[in-house]
């Protein structure tokens, strides 16, 4: 098999029960100003019209669009299958409910041509909330030092890589792969390991628009917290990461527990929230016992518990 073109790109869309919004994602790929792309849609066991919709689009552009099907296995498994199928040097994973801006692939390819290869190349994204309001998030230029990048991403310091706005070198992404045992935040594991092991670069251009869905996993507190308890074990793999990266495990695990504490507290689930706060203290007292967090914890005892 011949080597892929150095700047070739495949867009991968995992789709499960996505009939309501998949057309927007597909149209955004087909509307790219740079026509040199391939698209792989992986139907992840949908029972609605997702597969038929994807097949109609593929029939209009069979040379560039490939449709794969599989029993429902989760977004990580769907993305892994798409990456394994791709023949390009780079892959970009786009969620089925989001969209690329028309110039996204052109901007990414121009950056590769101007500045050379990268393992992770990411830009800005806009978030459209359920009320129609929109906010743009633009990364700064400080990315490019593995340990600093790893820490910034883990603790949410600045705008980091996110699906739709990040290009990954396929060889490294396929070798590391998305974890398939969790169905939420699986990107955190892969992106963090790629930041630790690869060369990262950011660009200020807007690449994607992400649409918040009321019932999406990203808004599901239960799913987020359940996944958070497994993420640290998957991410901090001693067979992949050097000790300097592994040393962040306790602080990261505590940070995830505190994230769950905040979300559950806002949802009125004070008893559950406090359980996560207690877990954070056990993991990293220094991270948990900050004045602001301690005040929220004490205040939770006075708040009414909601179902």
TrEMBL record:
Taxonomic superkingdom: Bacteria
InterPro entries for the chain: Glyco_trans_2-like, Glycosyltransf_2, Nucleotide-diphossugar_trans
Keyword Transferase: yes
Ranges where the Glycosyltransferase 2-like domain occurs: 10-173
Pfam families: Glycos_transf_2 (PF00535)
GO molecular function annotations of the record: transferase activity
Swiss-Prot/TrEMBL keywords: Transferase
One of the GO biological process terms: single-species biofilm formation
Name this polypeptide is given: Glycosyltransferase family 2 protein
Species name: Candidatus Macondimonas diazotrophica
């Amino acid at each position: 098999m011949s080597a892929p073109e150095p700047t070739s790109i495949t867009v991968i869309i995992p789709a499960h029960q996505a009939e309501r919004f998949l057309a927007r994602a597909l149209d955004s790929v087909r509307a790219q100003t740079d026509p040199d792309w391939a698209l792989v849609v992986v139907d992840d066991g949908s029972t609605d019209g997702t597969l038929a919709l994807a097949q109609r689009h593929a029939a209009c552009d069979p040379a560039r669009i490939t449709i794969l099907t599989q029993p429902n296995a989760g977004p990580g498994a769907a993305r892994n299958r798409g990456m394994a199928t791709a023949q390009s040097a780079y892959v970009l994973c786009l969620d089925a409910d989001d969209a690329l801006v028309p110039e996204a692939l052109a901007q990414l390819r121009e950056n590769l041509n101007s500045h050379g290869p990268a393992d992770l190349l990411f830009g800005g994204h806009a978030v459209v909330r359920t009320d129609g309001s929109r906010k743009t998030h633009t990364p700064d230029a400080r990315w490019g030092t593995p340990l600093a990048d790893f820490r910034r991403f883990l603790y949410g310091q600045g705008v980091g890589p996110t699906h739709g706005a990040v290009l990954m070198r396929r060889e490294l992404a396929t070798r590391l792969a998305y974890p398939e045992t969790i169905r939420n935040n699986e990107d955190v594991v892969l992106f963090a390991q790629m930041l630790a092991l690869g060369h990262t670069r950011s660009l200020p251009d807007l690449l994607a628009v992400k649409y918040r869905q009321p019932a999406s996993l990203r808004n599901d507190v239960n799913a987020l917290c359940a996944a958070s308890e497994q993420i640290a074990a998957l991410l901090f793999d001693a067979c992949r990461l050097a000790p300097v990266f592994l040393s962040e495990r306790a602080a990261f695990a505590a940070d995830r527990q505190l994230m769950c504490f905040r979300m559950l507290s806002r949802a009125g689930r004070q008893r559950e929230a406090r359980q996560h706060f207690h877990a954070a203290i056990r993991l990293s007292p220094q991270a948990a016992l900050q004045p602001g967090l301690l005040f929220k914890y004490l205040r939770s005892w006075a708040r009414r518990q909601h179902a």
